User: Which sequence fits this backbone?
């Protein structure tokens, strides 16, 4: 399964750039709303910067649970 991660940025000086770490399991690590399909539970760090070069970091964890035994 996959889930879309959505970053919400306010303040600062547009335009904003996004970089997600690690990029494993993401369809695009340089947009604000990538689709995540990790194979294992993963913590993603988002680095957002604005046009003035100010940076902000945040983290989200996607938990992957094993399928129940049949």
Assistant:
């Amino acid at each position: 399964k996959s889930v879309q991660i959505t970053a919400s940025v306010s303040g600062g000086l547009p335009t904003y750039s996004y970089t997600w770490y690690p990029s494993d399991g993401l369809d695009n690590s340089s947009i604000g709303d990538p689709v995540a399909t990790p194979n294992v539970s993963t913590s993603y760090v988002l680095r957002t910067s604005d046009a003035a070069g100010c940076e902000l970091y945040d983290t989200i964890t996607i938990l992957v649970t094993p399928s129940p035994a049949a």
Notes: The longest strand covers residues 42-49. Residues 12 and 50 are 6 Å apart (CA to CA). The mean pLDDT is 94. Strands lie at 3-4, 17-21, 35-36, 42-49, 55-62.
